[in-house]
Write a structure and sequence with these properties.
The protein is an alpha/beta fold and 302 residues long. Helix 6 crosses helix 7 (260-266). It is built from 8 helices and 14 strands. It is globular, with a radius of gyration of 22 Å. It has one domain: Rossmann fold, CATH 3.40.50. An 8-stranded mixed sheet has the order 5-4-3-6-7-14-12-13, sandwiched between helices. The protein has a two-stranded antiparallel ribbon with strand order 1-2. A two-stranded parallel sheet has the order 8-11. The protein starts with a helix and ends with a strand. The structure holds zinc ion (ZN).
């Protein structure tokens, strides 16, 4: 073959490669979103909490009020779009998980979008996963009952509002136990609606047609302990006070899906650890208090 023909073929080959690379870069850029400016990952001290108004612990937004009413799924932050339950979860993370740049973190089905995920990926070794791609978009698809991750490969797992949508709770918990390193930590958030865990009495679906298999109760703490985790149920100061005093009257009323009266009357105060005081709950709109709880699970070291 003449030299000129060889040179031409090479040029076409390199141009095609360059075009493919450029296309993939452009695709990446279109998907990319400016990272959200997040509050530093460190415990909140009383001096950090404003004296009045609304304050987002995630992005440090301050203003008169959040958007929407007092409900764990509402009270949206105008800057980062976190709702009240997001703020309680990340507040628990800031208070309980010491920051390290080399933290290996998995978050299952994060509710917040790409700006949040980009910001997290700059902070730690961050992986967002999802099983059902209809509901959310995430970095990788992961079946939580058979996770394609090595043993002891994670330092931190955040899993919010996922377990109620999985039929086999035990299969997920044993997988999460396997992939956490000894001493690793997991923060689980599910709707805590009643004293004892049970399937919903009627078929139940969440907004995006995802079926609900379980309504979790206070006994979920014992279930997590059985799996081998050192488990703590984190709540607000207001919720624990109501359990101590058996006070079941909330100014916000009681939302239909929560059996808040039975929970307050049956919970043992010794099983509840206060992580958010009244000032934090007031500024972050973490109310009504029966809607805010997170299970902290530590895999024992030895
Ligand atoms: Zn915010």
């Amino acid at each position: 073959m003449p030299d000129a023909a060889v040179a031409r073929r090479r040029t076409v080959h390199y141009l095609r490669r360059a075009r493919a690379i450029l296309r993939s870069k452009l695709r990446g850029r279109v998907r990319w979103e400016r990272p959200l400016r997040l509050r530093p990952w460190q415990p909140v001290s009383s001096g950090d909490v404003p004296e009045r108004g609304a304050w987002c612990v995630l992005c440090d937004w301050r203003g008169e009020r959040f958007e929407g009413g007092f409900h764990s799924e509402s009270a949206a932050c105008p800057r980062c779009q976190s709702v009240a339950r997001d703020r309680f979860l990340y507040f628990c993370m800031f208070q309980r998980v010491p920051y390290r740049r080399d933290l290996r973190m998995l978050e299952t089905s994060p509710r917040l979008g790409r700006g949040y995920r980009s910001a997290m990926a700059r902070r730690v070794h961050y992986l967002a996963s999802d099983y059902d791609e209809r509901a959310h978009k995430a970095d990788i698809k992961l079946d939580l009952t058979r996770m394609a991750l090595p043993d002891a490969s994670l330092d931190l797992v955040l899993t919010a509002h996922v377990l109620e949508h999985v039929p086999d709770t035990g299969a997920v918990l044993s997988e999460l136990y396997r992939v956490l390193r000894p001493g690793g930590r997991m923060l689980i958030q599910v709707p805590l609606t009643q004293p004892v865990t049970a399937p919903p009495p009627e078929p139940e679906f969440h907004g995006d047609k995802t079926p609900v298999f379980w309504r979790f109760g206070l006994d979920f703490t014992q279930r997590l302990c059985k799996e081998g985790f050192a488990t703590t149920l984190l709540v607000t100061q207001d919720f624990r006070r109501r359990v101590v005093e058996r006070d079941t009257t909330w100014p916000e009323g009681i939302s239909g899906e929560f059996d808040a009266v039975a929970m307050v009357n049956s919970a043992d105060p010794a099983d509840l650890t206060v992580v958010a005081d009244d000032a934090v709950a007031a500024r972050g709109w973490l109310r009504p208090s029966y809607m805010h709880s997170v299970w902290e699970c530590v895999k024992p070291s030895g």
